[in-house]
Amino acid sequence: MLNKMDLCLFVFLLLPFVSFGSGDVYLITMEGEPVVSYMGGIDGFSATAEDSMEEMDITSESVTSYSLYLKRKHDELLDLLFEAKSYKKIYSYCHLLNGFSVHLTPEQATALSKAPGVKYVEKDGKVRKLTTHTPQFLGLPTGVWPTGGGFDKAGEDVVIGLIDSGVFPKHPSFATYNTDPYGPLPRYRGKCEIDPETKRSFCNGKIIGAQHFAKAAIAAGAFNPAVDFPSPLDGDGHGTHTAAIAAGNNGIPVRMHGHEFGKASGMAPRARIAIYKVLYRLFGGYVSDVVAAIDQAVQDGVDVINLSVGPNSPPSTTKTTFLNPFDAALLSAVKAGVFVAQAAGNGGPFPKTLVSFSPWITTVAAAVDDRRYKNHITLGNGRTLPGLGLSPATHANKSFDLVSVSDVLLDSSVMKYNPLDCQRPELLNKNLVEGKILLCGYSFNFVSGTASIRKVCETAKSLGAAGFVVAVESSYPGTKYDPVPVALPGILITDVSQTKELIDYYNSSTKRDWAGRPTGFQATASIADGLAPILHNSAPQVALFSSRGPDVKDFSFQDADVLKPDILAPGSLIWAAWAPNGTDEANYEGEGFAMVSGTSMATPHIAGIAALMKQKYPHWSPAAIKSALMTTANTMDRAGRPLQAQQYSDTQMMTLSPATPFDYGSGEVDPKAALDPGLILDASYVDYINFLCSIPGVDPHEVSNITSSQCNATHGKPSDLNSPSITISHLVGTQTVKRTVTNVAETETYVLSTRMSPEIALEANPPAMTILAGSSKEISVSLTVRSVTGTYSFGEILMKGNRGHLVRIPVVAMGYSS
């Protein structure tokens, strides 16, 4: 007898860890509504687009029968078309999509695309993965947690689904021994896999669900069970890190190399964690597995989904980036009441590098917060050179002799090993290194190979060095240099000009014989204490790596009338839990904590804050939560200046420039304000379908094929979507858009004002309005081209309430002549 929870996402017997011969995995959508639109009966029913799975009992006999019916239809179609052993079905999807994934030859895929009832066939693609201080930086301990009963209640009974690389369940960030017991949560219906090694459950009450999805990866022949772990166990580190940022326990000491770097906490430390592993060490992941995980997470009853993953590129088989099984599954998740946060991508600072496109998803950009780890080295000639070094100082701050790795090689013939990066201690003369500061080079192996600062430290320590210096001699455009915690005094010099000064001093102070061999080391240096962070008011800044807009609507990168990213959150140098067997960051292998950067780290900040909002407003829609986050965001840094974005200069050096909504969306998240936004701009599933149908050139049949929803006769414009931003990528003459705001606070009178670049005239009406508690009002916004510049103009609508609420709607437009 099949368990009801397994009917829709059908669990097969363990597949062999080999590919199924030639062919690929394909995703197929079928005619007929998925469970998210289920209204009862089997054939011929039609659901209204407003229906939500939140009010649906998916364990009911009728829903269970319908799920089994859809799965049987998938099997019957494949059995009818192909011989039994010529294909392999991977998953049946029926909660968010009516479809399946299957391993086929290209010829079989062509035949399947022509079969009755088949609406859409797409070849599977890959996806990739895209703290101690940030709760304080965002004001959670003082401004947010106390209002909900303190950190030990923050996120109570809210479930965050993390679709990532799994979890290390034994980490103290997820422990239950120092917390109040977690009671049962009957509305969550997920399951907990058993660790095949320990035979123990991955769950403990804090971790409430743990499953892994690898059938598509296995079918593609990419999965290696020896290193990829066929379980929810995190072999990468990424998933453990994001889970801890979102909902890790509060007050966990971050200890490494005998030093404590503060105490870690998630944004919602009492929230439950549900793990859906889809990412693996060697190859990343596959869309089929991710869609299966999304489908299962919604079926299980998560409240929030964290997606620190994204596609390798925009979908190329549809006419718009918004229409594909991945985004369609997320649209159905939103219809089911689940808030989705997705990483913007790490392709910055270049424009149009986003990997999250759709308006129903909250797309998160990464910020540098106010914490910097700086250090310096003082040379014997009195010069001080700045660098990165999260390390203790050299003993008693006294100076030590400097010795270059090139002068202590045991055998010059070993150059094939690139010994200058100090990764192999057996190649160096310990007698010459002991008690000195070892000077190493920064080879390309650090950028794209296996070299790590951690290994330099291990080399120096094994040779008895007093410390080490790693000096960058050549510029590597796009390289991001992060401080690495090490046990030995050490520093990374990233400025090539500072490196030249260091080497010139060393060479001029080192005595050599006629053959160039050193006879005496007289260059000296001392390394300062770099363990304590320095706090800066010039924060936040948009991180250099954070992907930028404008959003694109199709594979030819035509601009969309959708502002992306949506929101900015801390994503640079984030301390959080790590899997000791994680291999994602060479500098943290074997460690329990890591300080990592990426929009992957920014996204769980938003997921955790969304969990706090879901706790306070359990019946708010995902669009309402997204609106509250966006309309209350900050566009000023801690010093009261407009936000800056890290960029490249003409010489490929990092510089700062004024940030725009294409860098930060609506601005940096303000959790306290988001929990009391005053007004929200809500949107329903039917609004998103109307948005899809209004995209110029879109095929209504394609909308129907992928979403199972029909376009009505009046399409309007994409900018008509009731989103908390306004974007018009092709403004001609005057265009008027409407926005409906709903008062979620007490009755309040708002005064409207606008700001806009002079090339575009921006007007909002009415100029003032009183909105009763729980009521809605419409505002009319007109944009008029004054001059054509060929560039985007940026502005905002400000709505200031007499009770203190401030609601801000960013406006973006590019004017064209008629």
Automatic annotation (TrEMBL):
Residues 1-23 form the signal peptide. The keyword Protein biosynthesis does not apply. Keywords: Glycoprotein, Hydrolase, Protease, Serine protease, Signal. GO terms for molecular function: serine-type endopeptidase activity. One of its GO terms (cellular component) is extracellular region. Belongs to the peptidase S8 family. It comes from Dendrobium catenatum. The gene is ARA12. Residues 155-637 form the Peptidase S8/S53 domain. The keyword Cytoplasm does not apply. Residues 720-812 form the Subtilisin-like protease fibronectin type-III domain. The active site is at D164 (charge relay system), H238 (charge relay system), S600 (charge relay system). InterPro entries: Peptidase_S8/S53_dom, Peptidase_S8/S53_dom_sf, Peptidase_S8_Asp-AS, Peptidase_S8_Ser-AS, Peptidase_S8_subtilisin-rel, Peptidases_S8_3, S8pro/Inhibitor_I9, S8pro/Inhibitor_I9_sf. Residues 26-128 form the Inhibitor I9 domain. It is found in: Secreted. One of its GO terms (biological process) is proteolysis. This is Subtilisin-like protease.
